[in-house]
From TrEMBL:
This is DNA (cytosine-5-)-methyltransferase. GO terms for cellular component: nucleus. One of its GO terms (molecular function) is DNA (cytosine-5-)-methyltransferase activity. InterPro entries: C5-Methyltransferase (IPR050390), C5_DNA_meth_AS (IPR018117), C5_MeTfrase (IPR001525), SAM-dependent_MTases_sf (IPR029063), SAM_MeTfrase_DRM (IPR030380), UBA (IPR015940). Its EC number is 2.1.1.37. Residues 163-482 form the SAM-dependent MTase DRM-type domain. It comes from Arachis hypogaea. Belongs to the class I-like SAM-binding methyltransferase superfamily. C5-methyltransferase family. Residues 24-51 are annotated as: Disordered.
Amino acid sequence: MLSGHGIVNVNDKATVRSVVGNDTINSDYRHSQGSSSRNQYDWDSDDDLEVFGMPQESNVHSVEESGSTCSSAKNSKLIHHFLGMGFSVEEVIKAIEEDGEDNEENILETLLTLAATIDDPMREAFREPCDFAKKSVTTIDISDDNDDYDISDSEIEEDAFTSEKDETLSILVNMGYPFKEALIAIDKCGPGADLSDLADFICAAQLEKEIESHLQDRPNRIHDTSLHVHKRALPTTRKWWPKWDRRTQLNCLLTSIGAATVTEKIRRDLEECGAETPPPNVQDTVLKLCKKWNLVWVGKNKVATLEPDEYEMLLGFPKDHTRGGGISRTDRYKALGNAFQVDTVAYHLSVLKDQYPNGVNVLSLFSGIGGAEVALHRLGIKLKNVVSAEISEVNRNILRCWWEQTEQRGNLFEVEDVQRVTSEHISHWINRFGGFDLVIGGSPCNNLSGSNRVSRDGLDGEHSSLFYEYYRIVNEVMQAQR
DNA sequence: GACACTCGGATAGAGGCG
DNA sequence: CGCCTCTATCCGAGTGTC
């Protein structure tokens, strides 16, 4: 789901990283540097709305917190802040009671400790043993009818920090995952499992749990533990999934979806067969279309395209992230089809959590709907200043809405076009913020995509040539911060 | 060599507006 | 009624894998 995206930690040349597909070049995420001196940031500064005196001032906007000092409002914001990181209301309230409202770091530590000590219903999500190490993010079964995997708190405590698990466990916790979920993931995937698989395991279990919670009141729940990947991520499809459709994963989520005529053709073909198991030639035809368009089963002989909400879930974005605000379904598909997979980006950026305990200044190029920002937030990394360059007004609106909804305390500055980001702008920002800690972005790949029959012109194509702008800006930032 | 997959683009048609 | 915008639908060749 990622391709051609770059992530550069500009203060640590040794950990400059590039992401292509799901592979990581130089992925020594354990490597950790000391904190930067520029982390001394004045959170109470009141001069954040200044517009930098850029040549195109109207293209730069700033969004910041109102700065309310009302205790209850602050408390509410704190709760929302930590809820957004995946903790429960009870945990957050308890942590705030223990640490007070003024020290978020202590609250976060308490929350992580709580997650490691209280009884956690997440274990329910991990009962069916299977090999997750080679599967994707949507591979968790959460069936309730298999009790062969269960561990007690005492077992967890005894088993917690032993040799090989220790380091992996601490890394996962530092990435923002609850202790117990991390421990269960290690137990299920094996001590030698790759961290990305462990992260996938935890995220998928959280996703499943959320979906299941919405379905609890429904009658006739289906508990088929034999079903596979996407049927687990999309449990409402379980009931209708035919045995002869043995797909275990979905294809890349693209910017367009299958037409209604495709699903109608499938329904008609299957109904004409009449049999429970259609003849092989019909199966082949149907499966090809299902694979091509990521169709899932939603009724007898009835397939459907994924909804934008399901795109959001699978990509790790908050529910309704791209919904509303005058945004059409088509635009949602387009925006989501081009977006980062948040869990994957969070995995790659997790190394920054220790390096920048006071938060980061980010230059986000081709921001899209803010996958990088969401990932950093999810990791609990404060966003001090984010300069976001995004050509699409729809996408800028989505990111700005998310910024306000999650009550970010830092500053968001918007730029329309990366081509208009000059070295003067970069110098101004660096002087202003004390430097960027992270440059991240995914330049357009329209002209690189195999799906493009019309203008696959490579890196010299109209859109994909913006890669060179990314390269230029990264170089200018690194040179300016030498 | 057969097969599967692809961060897409062009366009007809619906709908809004004056 | 004409123009414009927006949306949904249809369109396949290049490339990698087995």
